[in-house]
Design a protein that fits this description.
single chain; 7-stranded antiparallel beta sheet; two-stranded antiparallel sheet; 9 strands; globular
Length: 94
Protein backbone atom coordinates (compact mmCIF):
# COMPACT_ATOMS: atom_id res chain seq x y z
CA UNK A 1 0.00 0.00 0.00
CA UNK A 2 1.59 3.30 -1.08
CA UNK A 3 0.63 6.26 1.10
CA UNK A 4 0.66 9.81 -0.25
CA UNK A 5 0.09 12.65 2.26
CA UNK A 6 -2.07 15.37 0.70
CA UNK A 7 -3.06 18.64 2.41
CA UNK A 8 -6.81 19.22 2.51
CA UNK A 9 -7.44 22.55 4.17
CA UNK A 10 -5.50 22.57 7.42
CA UNK A 11 -5.41 18.77 7.62
CA UNK A 12 -3.04 16.35 5.91
CA UNK A 13 -4.91 13.33 4.63
CA UNK A 14 -3.08 10.11 3.75
CA UNK A 15 -4.24 8.67 0.41
CA UNK A 16 -3.60 4.93 0.30
CA UNK A 17 -3.29 3.00 -2.97
CA UNK A 18 -2.87 -0.76 -3.13
CA UNK A 19 -0.19 -1.90 -5.58
CA UNK A 20 1.51 -5.17 -6.43
CA UNK A 21 5.17 -5.34 -5.48
CA UNK A 22 8.25 -7.50 -5.26
CA UNK A 23 10.12 -7.40 -1.95
CA UNK A 24 13.90 -7.72 -1.89
CA UNK A 25 16.48 -7.28 0.81
CA UNK A 26 18.69 -4.21 0.77
CA UNK A 27 22.06 -4.87 -0.88
CA UNK A 28 25.06 -4.62 1.40
CA UNK A 29 26.68 -1.61 -0.30
CA UNK A 30 23.45 0.40 -0.19
CA UNK A 31 22.87 -0.53 3.45
CA UNK A 32 26.31 0.62 4.58
CA UNK A 33 26.19 3.81 2.49
CA UNK A 34 22.82 4.73 4.03
CA UNK A 35 23.93 3.66 7.51
CA UNK A 36 26.94 5.96 7.17
CA UNK A 37 24.63 8.99 6.96
CA UNK A 38 22.32 7.87 9.75
CA UNK A 39 19.68 5.91 7.82
CA UNK A 40 18.83 2.25 8.32
CA UNK A 41 17.20 0.82 5.19
CA UNK A 42 15.03 -2.25 5.81
CA UNK A 43 13.65 -3.34 2.42
CA UNK A 44 13.88 -2.68 -1.28
CA UNK A 45 10.51 -2.77 -3.01
CA UNK A 46 10.01 -2.98 -6.78
CA UNK A 47 6.72 -1.80 -8.25
CA UNK A 48 5.37 -0.98 -11.68
CA UNK A 49 6.23 2.64 -12.55
CA UNK A 50 2.65 3.28 -13.74
CA UNK A 51 1.35 2.26 -10.29
CA UNK A 52 3.76 4.74 -8.71
CA UNK A 53 2.66 7.53 -11.05
CA UNK A 54 -1.01 6.95 -10.13
CA UNK A 55 -0.09 7.63 -6.49
CA UNK A 56 1.36 11.08 -7.27
CA UNK A 57 -1.30 13.66 -6.41
CA UNK A 58 -1.30 17.11 -8.03
CA UNK A 59 -3.06 20.09 -6.46
CA UNK A 60 -2.60 23.31 -8.41
CA UNK A 61 1.06 23.31 -9.38
CA UNK A 62 2.18 21.27 -6.34
CA UNK A 63 2.90 17.53 -6.66
CA UNK A 64 2.74 15.16 -3.69
CA UNK A 65 4.60 11.87 -3.94
CA UNK A 66 4.18 8.76 -1.79
CA UNK A 67 6.19 9.02 1.43
CA UNK A 68 5.25 5.79 3.19
CA UNK A 69 4.49 2.15 2.43
CA UNK A 70 2.38 -0.24 4.45
CA UNK A 71 3.52 -3.82 3.91
CA UNK A 72 2.66 -6.94 5.86
CA UNK A 73 1.11 -4.92 8.69
CA UNK A 74 4.09 -2.58 9.14
CA UNK A 75 4.48 1.05 8.16
CA UNK A 76 7.74 2.04 6.43
CA UNK A 77 9.09 5.44 5.40
CA UNK A 78 10.40 5.86 1.87
CA UNK A 79 14.00 7.04 1.86
CA UNK A 80 14.69 6.59 -1.85
CA UNK A 81 12.62 6.04 -4.98
CA UNK A 82 13.98 5.92 -8.48
CA UNK A 83 13.11 4.69 -11.96
CA UNK A 84 15.05 1.43 -12.34
CA UNK A 85 14.04 0.90 -15.97
CA UNK A 86 11.13 1.81 -18.25
CA UNK A 87 8.47 -0.12 -16.36
CA UNK A 88 9.89 -0.46 -12.87
CA UNK A 89 10.43 1.75 -9.83
CA UNK A 90 12.74 0.71 -7.01
CA UNK A 91 11.86 2.04 -3.56
CA UNK A 92 14.08 1.75 -0.49
CA UNK A 93 12.33 2.05 2.88
CA UNK A 94 13.26 2.24 6.54
Amino acid sequence: MLITPVPEGIEITPHETEVFCEIKSVVRSEFFAAYGVGLTPKLTININSDDYKVCIKTIGNQRYRPSQIRYDGELYTIIRAYQKNIGEMEITVR
